[in-house]
Amino acid sequence: MGKVKKILVGVDGSAVSYRAADFALELASSLKADVLAVHVIPPLPADYASLGAKVEVSVEEIDRKILHEVRVMGYTKNIKLETKVLKGRPAEVINSVAESEGCDLIVLGCIGVGGAYRRLMGSVATEVVNTSKKPVLLVK
């Protein structure tokens, strides 16, 4: 692996994802790299839609509540930080964005949202590790 110039960090609002973001920002500061913080809004499982359940998720609200914390963490680190809220299957979106944005490293928390959500959606970190063409660093 060559010089790390751009790091993608996935943030889902969990404590471990904020630890991953902090780690990515510290690493970027020491490497003089840029950071792209991404939150992916997953689709509802088909079972929910068939029951007539509708959940409206505001991209602006996600950005204000979840990614704002990352911007605050990055404010004093003197690095270029970009944030994005995207929709889709999280692992697929993370891998696709890492490729299209030219990221050299993906940083993820390895224990994000748990419980029923994890059983329904699977582990994003596991899927990214198993499918990414980019190096992946997991933070506990």
Give short descriptive properties of this protein.
globular, 46% helix, Rossmann fold, alpha/beta, 140 residues, 5 strands
Quick summary:
The protein has helices at 15-31, 46-50, 59-75, 90-100, 115-121, 124-131, and strands at 6-10, 34-41, 81-87, 105-109, 136-139. With 140 residues, it is an alpha/beta fold.
Decide which structural class fits the backbone.
alpha/beta
CATH topology, which one? Rossmann fold
| Helix-strand pattern | EHEHHEHEHHE
* Intertermini distance: 23 Å
**Range of helix content:** 40-55%
Give a written overview of the molecule:
The chain has 140 residues and is of the alpha/beta class. It has one domain: Rossmann fold, CATH 3.40.50.620. The protein has six helices and five strands; from the N terminus they run βαβααβαβααβ. It has helices at residues 15-31, 46-50, 59-75, 90-100, 115-121, 124-131, and strands spanning 6-10, 34-41, 81-87, 105-109, 136-139. The chain has a five-stranded parallel β-sheet, with helices on both faces. Helix 1 links the parallel strand 1 and strand 2.
